[in-house]
Each structure stands twice: as structure tokens, then as C-alpha cells.
Amino acid sequence: MTGHGARAVALVGATASGKSAVAHRLALESAGSVEILAVDAMTVYRGMDLGTAKPTRAQRDEVSYHLLDLVEPSEEFTVAQYQRAARASAAGVGDRGGAVLYVGGTGLYGRAVLDDFEIPGQYPQVRAELESRADAELALLYARLSELDPLAASRMEPTNARRIVRALEVTLGSGRPFSTFGAGLRTYGPVRVVQVGLRVDFELLDERIDRRFHAWIEQGLVDEVRALAQSPRGLSRTARQAVGYRELLRHVEEGVALDECVAEAIAQSRRLARRQRSWFQRDPRIEWFDEPGAAQSRLAEVLNGPDGFVRE
Known about the structure:
Strands 3-2-4-1-5-6 form a six-stranded parallel sheet, with helices on both faces. The chain folds into three domains: 7-119 and 190-200 and 285-308, P-loop containing nucleotide triphosphate hydrolases (Rossmann fold, 3-Layer(aba) Sandwich), CATH 3.40.50; 124-180, Orthogonal Bundle (Histone, subunit A); 202-277, Crystal structure of tRNA isopentenylpyrophosphate transferase (bh2366) domain (Helix Hairpins), CATH 1.10.287. It is α/β, with parallel strands linked by helices and 312 residues long. It contains 13 helices and six strands. The termini are close together. The longest helix is centred in the middle third of the chain and has 25 residues, at 124-148.
């Protein structure tokens, strides 16, 4: 992910927890030595700005941000693509003598770079064949997986078609068992990059999510979603999954009442915050703080001390 002797730290937490403000302040006060790498599955899309809480143009003039606006919203985007881009950005920061501050709430993207996961490749032809058989022959596919990679089979339900197909796709396509590509997301190795977590009471988080979404609507989020929906190449499957956009697309494309779509978007954002919190709380390596100032102080302390070096 980063070269030898590189400095890095991560700030994690749920959406609307105040991570971005803490990170921006720290980077600003560092006089250019700290650069921010966004760990977010949706800020990679150009034109998806308001509803992803992407830093503004003014903020990006003040602080170096990376991994924003990587692809068109018509394109699919994978964790492997993100990992490659993050490694390149982090190496660049290291070459300049700077420090990397990873910030975001997309847990899988975070694990991919912070734990330097080895991500299996994609084998579209193999997958297409397996998917064509999955409906009628799932039990046979699971039996095949059990034979080729008993460990991978033991980690999934015999009814989970998506996981069975993916494990077989990799095992057949790469010629090595799927289970050899890492111990899995529920296993936490030694600390490679220190992670600081910002925790906010759910009642306050819910209020912030509500207030923030209504502010985005006032700033023109519906027009942003409409422009994306009307662009010649449309929105990819992954871009359409963005919370807030997915709900407003129902208003723009299907004529569902705006109030109903806004209420649903807020409800889904609150659910997302809870999923993110539970994802991060499973990781025993994260150091949690309730006060933004205390979180910022710890981040600075890590970057200025021996804990700020990436442990390879």
C-alpha cells in the first residue's frame, strides 16, 4: 500500500459522525504535510457531489484530497480498483515526504487498504457459466466447492448462491482455493495502520442526518440526481446503490412524491449509520473517541510518533 517508512493513520466512523471536519482541520493545520485519502465507495463517482458529502471545491483548494472523482457514474467500480488507486495515491504521498490520513465509512474499502488484502481477480466467463446453473443446480455447485475448497464451503450457507458462485469462480478461474486469499473479514490481524474511531450518540446522529439531507435538498440535490439520471450513459448498478440517490431516483424516474422519497432516504441513511457502526465496532483494533477534538489530537499524536509508521 505504501512504501517503506511511510506514515499513515485512519479515521473511521458512521456517516454524519463529523469525520470529514476533523480530518480537514488536521490536514489544514499540518501546512500540507498531511494528505487525505477518501475511503468511500460513492465519492469515487464524478457528478455525485452533494449526497456523498464530497469536499467542496474550496476545501479541496485548502487541503490535498485523493480518490475522489475517479470514474463516471455510468461505470461499475470494484474494491480491487479502489485498492489499486489507493496504493498509488498513498505511494505518491509517501514519495513527497507526506503523511496519509485515510478517512471514510466504507468498511470493506478500508480493510482492503489498511490490511493490504489480497483480492482475488474476476473471471467473467467462469462466473457467467456458474450463474446460469445456480438456480437449478445450487446444491451441485455447493458440493463441487466442498470438494475443491472445503474451508470456503464451511464458511457459507449452502443456500447462499452469490457467495458460492464467487468462491467457485475464483477457485476455478485462478486455480487456487478461494480460502487462500485471506482469512476473511471477521479475522483481525496485527495493527498495520492505527485506526481512530469517532463515535456519536445515535439520537444526535439521527438529527444530523435529517438536518444534513434537508440542507442538501435546498442546495439542489434533486437537480443533481436528475442530471445523473438523464445523462446519456445513465447510472451503473453500483452508483445506483448510493443511499440518498437510490431513493431520489424513484422521484425523478418514477414520479414518486418527493416528500416520501426524502423520508425514505433519511431512514435508509440512519440504517446505514447503524450498519457502519456495527462493522467498525467488531474491529478490536480501533481506538474510539466521543469528542472530535480528542480524536484529532490522537491522530496528530500517531502521525508525529512511532505509531504513525505503516507496519509491513
